[in-house]
Amino acid sequence: MEAVRASAAWVASRSSHVKVDLSEIEKAVDKIQGNVPKIEWDFEGIHYFDNGPLTVQYLFVLDALNFCFWPDKDLTYDNLASGLKLALENDKTALDADRLQSYTGPQLRQLLNWPRSLPIEEERVRLLHEVGLELERSFGGQAANLVKAAGNSAASLIELITRHFPGFRDHSLYKGHQVFLYKRAQIFVADLWGAFKGGNYGEFNDINSITIFADYIVPAVLRDLGILKYESNLSCSIDSNSEIVPGSEEEVEIRACSVHAVEKMRELINKKFGKQNTKMTDLLNH
């Protein structure tokens, strides 16, 4: 995903609210000595998996909805993953393309077994409709056909997703420059790779092409390691749990600098220890 890497580097070179500390990257890399522990997918047991196309459908819907759990302090990704899993176990047609197009907010809550309105519920419903409609129109209703169309290429799959599904086009305008991050499209690729253990629907000959996923967890880890440094006003906002406005300079810088920092870590691990490391993204995204 060269567009993501180039975007992240461009932002990092101009960032005023967030800085990447290269000396701390070197310390972190020396500390782990290039050894990043392997993280097994679904070690929590919260995901649906049947080793077939329904798992692909499940993961695509899950990753379409995987954003913004704030400000509901009780709602987490685990609720989303386990809720959709239970829905499928009770009704194998729950995520069929035609049904995705018809869900309302209350029906989505019922599907997830969630007792109150979801954060940005209208947008989540809109994304379900978008996914169902485009899967039906272009891929025979099945996300598995979308994956097959990519020909075992992670980069091609991300390109297909972002071309056909606008809700996955994770990009922002920063200082007049378009920045691409493609968080959820890349998560879908990584979920397939992890769930199917690099085979079947998860076989990609260029899995190293994806980057870390620019969400809210990775920056927290990097900040704790001293790799990301925030200017004082941004630090105060984060420490007081104030909202960082989506698309703002601060938000774009946090996300882009996180990607750039981990790319620098990966480059340094390869240089020092001769390892092409995909597990770095696994570690930081769990």
UniProtKB/TrEMBL annotation:
<dbReference type="Pfam" id="PF10343">
    <property type="entry name" value="Q_salvage"/>
</dbReference>
<dbReference type="InterPro" id="IPR019438">
    <property type="entry name" value="Q_salvage"/>
</dbReference>
<comment type="function">
    <text>Catalyzes the hydrolysis of queuosine 5'-phosphate, releasing the nucleobase queuine (q). Is required for salvage of queuine from exogenous queuosine (Q) that is imported and then converted to queuosine 5'-phosphate intracellularly.</text>
</comment>
<dbReference type="GO" id="GO:0016787">
    <property type="term" value="F:hydrolase activity"/>
</dbReference>
<keyword id="KW-0378">Hydrolase</keyword>
<comment type="similarity">
    <text>Belongs to the QNG1 protein family.</text>
</comment>
<protein>
    <recommendedName>
        <fullName>Queuosine 5'-phosphate N-glycosylase/hydrolase</fullName>
        <ecNumber>3.2.2.-</ecNumber>
    </recommendedName>
</protein>
